[in-house]
UniProtKB/TrEMBL annotation:
Keyword Transferase found: yes
Keyword vocabulary terms for this entry: Transferase
Keyword Transferase set for record: yes
Pfam families referenced in this protein's UniProt entry, alphabetically: CoA_transf_3
GO MF: CoA-transferase activity
Organism this protein belongs to: marine metagenome
Protein name (Swiss-Prot/TrEMBL): CoA transferase
Gene3D superfamilies associated with the record: Crotonobetainyl-coa:carnitine coa-transferase, domain 1, formyl-coa transferase, domain 3
Amino acid sequence: MRVLDISNGIAGSYCSSLLAEYGAEVIKIEPPVTGDPTRAIGPFPAQMPDPETSGLFIHLNANKKGITLNLQSESGATLFKELTKESDIVIESFEPGYLDSFGLGYQSLESINPALVLTSITPFGQTGPFRDYRASDIGIFAMSGRMYVHGVDTDSPLAYGPDVIWYQVGATAAAATMSAIFSSFAYGIGQQLDISCLETLTGNVDNRLLFFEYTGELTPRTRWPGGLPQGAYPCADGYVIFGVGYDRYFKRLCQAMEMPWIYSDPRWANYSARTNNSEAFEMLFLEWLLKRTRDEIFRTCQSNRVMCAPLLSFEELIQDDQLSTRGFFYAIHHPTVGHHTTMGPPFMLSNTPAKNKEPSPLLGQHNSVIYGQLGYTELQLSQFRTAGIV
């Protein structure tokens, strides 16, 4: 399966990265000279920007081949059409109508390759009053309603950390692309996929949205009533996270604390009672937590089937036993950066495991190979480079 990735940014690159992890031949197509915008985003070794050492680009584009191509030129558009004839999937993230202006829209590509799947990723989708608008990740987070319910009513709304949304969109696009390619392989008929970032995040449903849909009532921007304890709590060496909530879990927590009498106390004996008496319980709870480390609390609670987790730093995360055992983090060698740690896909397949990582391509690294497969000579490629086509 051959994939042409002409997207720019994180979402499209992550989509094609997931496909590349499991065996697809992915060709990352970048503008000549400047390359993909993520090449300008760090981290960089020694904080020295270099398009060949961007940690973000290297992470997103392992296992891919890389070529350069100016899609805005007439010759570049012709070359892209030739590549499309021999490909199964094209992934793009331009504004609606952009590719049409170069004769590279879906109808044009479909006439060349009727089985082609075109995955189009935009902030708001190919249709609707906002189709031509641009958006940042925090803008999508705000418009999806997710920011409305994050934080507390007495302060400003809170957002996710940077870029989280784009990875969610990329994973959604990869799943949709695989659904479409099954249809293409079975019936020889392709289609365009309309991936909306706004709809992706809105579709990752917050329970409070469901609450409003069913009741028409707005839930305040606070933690869930009765969900006690819930959230981050300090302990002897950091923080631990709890999501206890229901009565049966609260009873198990009392057993883990070796204080079963708490559950028998009328102040905390049920879901609603704990809501009205939360401060008194949390004083007891904090006293218990502050005498114990994260690991002690985590293992004690998990052995009692209580949902609890330690709050880890990135340094601790890379050394985490669970992720290390599963090989999620591992070393890879890049020709410019050298050895560095990277991460694998967020899922495993039992019969077709992810392949060992090949480093991300240097800018235009595979021009000779890919264009050579189309019959172009080194002399012609040299002429293309001089003309700014590749």
